[in-house]
Amino acid sequence: MIYFDYNATAPLHPAARAAWLEACECFIGNPSSPHRMGNRAEKALDDARQQLADFLGCHPLELVWTSGATESSNLVFNHASQLARPRGEVWISAIEHPATLAPARHYFKKSVRSIPVTSAGVTDLNWVLESLKKKRPALIAVMAANNETGVLQPWQSLAAICREKEIPFFCDAVQWLGKLPANELGQCDFVSGSAHKFGGPKGVGFLKIPAKGKLKPLILGGKQQDGHRAGTENVPGLLAMLAALTERETALHQNQHQIRLTWRNEFESRLTAISPEISIVGLREERLWNTCLAFLPDSGCRFRWVVKLDKAGFAVSTGSACASGQEEPSHALSVMGYSPAQISRAIRFSSGWETSPSEWTQLQVGIASIAENKDIA
Ligand code: PLP
To answer: Which of 27, 146, 233, 281 is deepest in the core (most CB within 10 A)?
Structure first.
């Protein structure tokens, strides 16, 4: 089976596995315990905190360990709702992941405003600038890169606008981290990340918070993490996350993603040559080097392509991992203006650092032969 669903989750990187095993053997103490074994675990976590802060360009004390990006997002909206004035609004891009959409709606109810996106899936900066002339939200949230289309969002500009206007800015950097350099993300007030998207273990993540003020916690209990998030820290998981991120940041530093972008682009050229019915979403926009969201020839039901490709030995997705378990069409594609019929033809291919050019070729050949046989339905 060839795996093309890295945006849903990535396999554990060997360095992460080694760090996890080492931590289980060497850092067995509770980081909050007063003895030397506790101190060793605490020191290992402090080092990991410093490493992550260096990658993001922020202060180590601005980092909170969490169980993943969904918890991080929930922390942000819970916090913002407690500080907001009555009926204070949050503005979130129309293509946010459910991990952001759902807590925004839960904590802000009808005071959630959707920032429109272009038909290519880019958040409309002008809408934000114009709307800010009339209103001041309690928080603006825009992801760094979309999980379905891979289209990069103007988060650097939004972070700068928000900083100038002193409006808190939250960036879900789940799909960006480990694929593109993290070093400017520290400029955002809040940043969420999730280890399993870049080769770390599942159930481990973080939230970057502003230096000023105290985060309103969601999980109450002991005094861990300065009271921001109670509960004994997942030392092996966190050290494994940093081991994976270190590998990815090193590869990025060596520009190893550039050649992978070429492989993806070559795949897209060959894919669109198969049939005039095939097109790529956000083709002309800057996108993650690993993601291709394509409209394939009509199969009557979008799961047929997934099933056919599965049988042919390829693991692909219909969009976000959350959406693929349900029959509902992708909300991101809907707000970009695509019809339900078009959305039913959308298939996402997302590669990893490990994916070879020959695997991309095999995928294209597999799609071509399924399309030729025309027995998709
Ligand atoms: N944000 C984005 C953009 C994602 O793609 C995902 C996972 O699919 C999440 C948030 C949720 O991450 P986690 O699995 O760590 O809760």
So the answer is: 146
CA distance 351 to 373: 26
User: Which residue out of 7, 65, 70 has the highest number of ligand 1 atoms within 8 Å of its CB and is therefore the one to mutate?
Assistant: 70
pTM for this one?
0.96
- Quote the ligand 1 centre to 171 CA distance (angstroms): 12
State phi, psi for 98 to the nearest 5 degrees: -55, -25
Return the axis-axis angle of helices 256-274 and 235-253, rounded to nearest 10°. Answer: 80
322 given a catalytic annotation: yes
Q: What's the rounded Cα separation, in Å, for the pair 209 and 194? A: 15
pLDDT band at 48 (very low <50, low <70, confident <90, very high): very high
**DSSP-assigned beta bridge partners for residue 346:** 295
Asked if residue 315 has pLDDT above 60, the reply is yes
At residue 377, the pLDDT reads: 52
Report how far apart the first and last C-alpha atoms of the chain are (Å, whole number). 22
Alpha-carbon gap, residue 116 to 348, rounded angstroms: 22
Residue 99 Cα to ligand 1 middle (Å):
6
Structure tokens at 219: 């999980």
Q: Which residue has the tokens 């928080």?
A: 139
Write out pLDDT tens, residues 89-123. Answer: 999 999 999 999 999 999 999 999 999 999 999 99
Domains and CATH numbers, the chain: 2-9+255-373 (3.90.1150.10), 14-251 (3.40.640.10)
| pLDDT for 280 beyond 60 | yes
- Among the options 26, 162, 292, 322, which is catalytic? 322
Residue spans of alpha helices (H) in the chain: 14-26, 36-56, 69-83, 98-108, 125-132, 155-165, 235-253, 256-274, 302-311, 321-324, 331-335, 340-343, 357-373
Q: pLDDT tens for residues 331-370?
A: 899 999 999 989 989 999 999 999 999 999 999 999 999 9
Which ligand 1 atom sits closest to the C-alpha of 143?
Answer: 3
Q: Any residues with CB less than 8 A from the CB of 253 and at least 6 apart, and which?
A: 181
Residue 298 confidence class, pLDDT cut points 50, 70, 90:
confident
